Amino acid sequence: MAITVKDVAKKAGVATSTVSRVINDHPSISENTKKKVRRIMDELGYVPNITARNLGKRVSSAVGVILPPLDSKERIGNPFYLEIMEAINEEARHHGMTTAIATAKNFDVLLENVERMHLQKQVDGFILVYSDSDDPVIDYLYKNKIPFTLIGQPYHHENEIIYIDNDNQLLGKQATEFLIENGHENILFVTNTTHESLYFERYFGYQKAMMLAGLEAHPSVNLEQAEDYLIFDTTLKETKATALVVIDDIFALRTMQLAQMYGYIIPDTLSVVSFNNSIFSTLTHPYLTSIDIDISELGRVAMQKLQELINDEVSNGVRLVIPHRLIKRETVVEKRL
């Protein structure tokens, strides 16, 4: 038989309302009474009803994880989101909190979902796992002073937002430098998105590495539309590319398939470096050379900082950079001159 508030109140010799106030740590109850009631709760094995307690405190003990619009198969199947949600959920559990997911196929519906979660007090704060120039959600969170942390680099209010990120410009630079060190000079940057923060940063890093080496930095190759795929072979031939830096692992596999369809052999005639070091990097041969961005640490720190923000333990305007490392595998071969 389940122990109730009435059982605790009876044994402690207090009113049920007093037990409820102790559960909510109400300042009107003396410390001696709190200690007495809590001791009785422990003796009886009473577990407070978290939902009822939170209704009284007007908190939810939950955080919202906001995913970007899942408007393509690559995004839906991208293991980055699953890995980061797992890390956030595990860290939330350590703080006695749960997670709720906000997702949609476009930004308008996503914003509606986030507004509903906030107005209905379903969550105490949010973690955005992306940074997009077209995103209305971050503006809503910022303007309404809703606690949130961002995984990625914000486009505005950098000094007032807590954000956790890799040094994506350095990632792009080091990926390109690795190819240059292996004798490649005609290197392209390939992407399927041109409005996310990580694209700009990684592409800037590519440009920087090429310019520092005295090599031509080409415009990014954007494979966002069906017709872009049709001219990919022409682009490779015109630039005489021998190596590619690709925006992430899952898209790197798509790009490699496309290149092989046009007769290129990975890595003999076309080397590839990517980012994330996801499960996809070792699912098919050749294994993908990729930069590990420590997804678990990104999620863990984002949750940790959100908890501190909710508890007023940290002020806005914090940037935290998570280290990365290059994982050398089979998609880069030394180009002999």
From TrEMBL:
Keywords from the UniProt entry: DNA-binding, Transcription, Transcription regulation
Keyword DNA-binding: yes
HTH lacI-type domain residues: 3-57
GO terms assigned for molecular function: DNA-binding transcription factor activity; transcription cis-regulatory region binding
PANTHER family, A to Z: HTH-TYPE TRANSCRIPTIONAL REGULATOR GALS, LACI-RELATED TRANSCRIPTIONAL REPRESSOR
Protein name: LacI family transcriptional regulator
Organism of provenance: Candidatus Enterococcus wittei
